[in-house]
Predict the structure.
Amino acid sequence: MYPTRQPLLDAEGLLCGFELVLRADEEAAATPAAPATDARDELRLSDEAAARVLDALGARGVYAALAGHRGYLNASRALLFSDAFTRISPDRYQFELPPDIEVDPALIARLVGLHAKRHRFVLDHVTQPNETFAKLLPYVHAVKIDVARVPPGLLPKLAAALKSAGKLLIALNVDAPEQFDEARELGFDLFQGYFFASPHKQTTRRASAPRQALLNLLRLLSADPSVAQLEAELKLNPVLVMHLMRLANSGEGSIGRKVATLREAINATGTNRIARWTQLLLYADGRKVRLEDDPLVQLAATRARFIELAVARLAQATRKTVDGAFLTGVFSLVGVVFGDTLENTLDALSLSSHIHAAILHREGTLGTLLNAVEALERGDWAAVDRAAAMLEPLSSADLTELAITAAAWASSSDQSDEHAGLDHFEE
């Protein structure tokens, strides 16, 4: 059982956490379908629920996919009452209390006891105050408000009241920059949604290197250049030279001694690695932000790696499809960082027609995989199932596992092998 992850950002637009979303039918299987007949039966069901959640948290790559950030996970009543709950690290995870959870003295006592052990809770999916909200508010550290569903006139009042009560405010379903700006002005602390990947022009995002220079470099790389040609192009932009020298002297890119010349850096790094570095550098924020904290780099890299991993599992995939996998994922978000339309930007990149069609029209295997990873980002399991039906032998569970593996790769700077994660670069 693997979760999918959804990013939480702070007021500066930097990653600070991920919600780990389990599939609804898996959550239901971990929750009692009917009242327990006695205390022993309730304990058995609670322990089973906890075991499934612990399995999800302990699944390969899940910890790495958090990239050092805090994880947020929905907590059923059964999970909260399980003895195994205390095995979950309070420093790593916070738990979200669903709006329909049954609140009684036993639950309140349990929350108080867990709070004494440093566990913290979030009141989830609030749209307006109700009886459950009032009962749980004293025992939660934060409140997650669905800003798209709260009546506009109520949102400022609710935010002000909760801030005065000392609660951390999390804005849910923030999918447009305007929503982010509004919520931030109202005093929200964290923001969950994909506003940072909106096609609207990102006026506050500064590139880590001139993007036209990156485009020129990408065009050259697509033509299989000689070292001399690549060296000449890189010399036109000192910022790129600086990035490449740092890349060549880091991790496995190093040749056992410090690289001193640009030509040595090119030879030590290799054109394939330089190409991937250049593609992701398009998305990097110029505020000296760590890759693990940059939401757009993380999203682009995860998509690219997911499609690459999935294609490798498809026996019917052609050489052309395999070669275009990483490019399809990484350039699916290129419209976010350029002022022009996505179509014009893709044309400027001179991408192959099948990659172009996959991104713009979702054609072919690559287009289906791009639909699949977007569905996983949203937690739209019906869409994941539809994609899986077209990607045999991959199942929905396989796709979810691959997404977590890809996220772990994007979140890592380990250079130990061919499956290593991203390289660090900064301005």
Observations:
- Confidence is low (pLDDT under 50) at residues 28-42, 414-419.
- The two ends are 39 Å apart (CA to CA).
- The longest helix spans residues 39-58.
